[in-house]
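so my prof wants the structure for this chain in the tokens format not the other one, which i didnt know existed until like an hour ago. anyway here's the sequence
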Amino acid sequence: KRPALRRVLNACVCNEIDLETREQGVYYYQGLHDIASVILLVVGDEEATLAILARLVKDQLKDCTRSDLVPVLESLELVFDLLRALDPELHDHIRSSGVPCHFALSWRLTWFSHDTQTPAQCSRLFDAFMASPPLFPLYVGACAIASRRELVMNTESDFATMHTLLSSINSGGVGSISEGDIRRALQLYKSAPPERLVAGSRGKGKGGMGYLKYLRTLGSAGGWGGDEADGDGGGGKAGRRQYAWAWSAMLGFSGLAAVTTATAAITSIVAFWDGNLEFQLV
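here's what i got, hopefully its the right format
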């Protein structure tokens, strides 16, 4: 598969030219090969893999394939706001260690594929991320940390120790991201989208202000969140789109690992209905 993977990556990166500036529109980054490898292994077809990857680098992975990773690094500040919303005590314990949010960098760059234990788990995560806004991996990672609360709280508030733990939140030794983590992340995105977290963190110091400018450009990162940031408030077209992607993420509409995720998808739907969440398909 290595020659095929190399051809897919070369075609995806080298063929994307910005028509306005005539400059390279997609840049390779360390981690893109991880995502491409998973797609190629699951799909099994080189042309189909290229078609999927070419779409992702224009949407969910667009910020990762720019000439620098500044937008991605700024967006990582969202993780601490998410942890504060999920569990203030857990958030304070992690922050007391002085660890920065860089432990979450691979969440966006590789979609957890670098340290995922099984192909089925990796495919399920990809199903969710391909059907979701660009920042959704941060929500899943934050929920995974929160679900391991006892382990994190019992970890010494030391920079190196805490960074090692948080960097391996999806490893076999700590535990793998579960369907429950994904389901909880979907609920969290609905109740606390990025724009709302940014608004709530104003005046609290560095919190959400670092990526405020970044969030205003989300429209260029796959067209997610722009309408809501303009005051739609989750209703109307933006609200319907949000519910639609949440529904799609539960169903695993991308086609990856459709058989392995069918039961999990049904479980998710039932859980969402039990939580009285409303969905509007578009």
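also thought this was worth mentioning. The chain has a mean pLDDT of 75.
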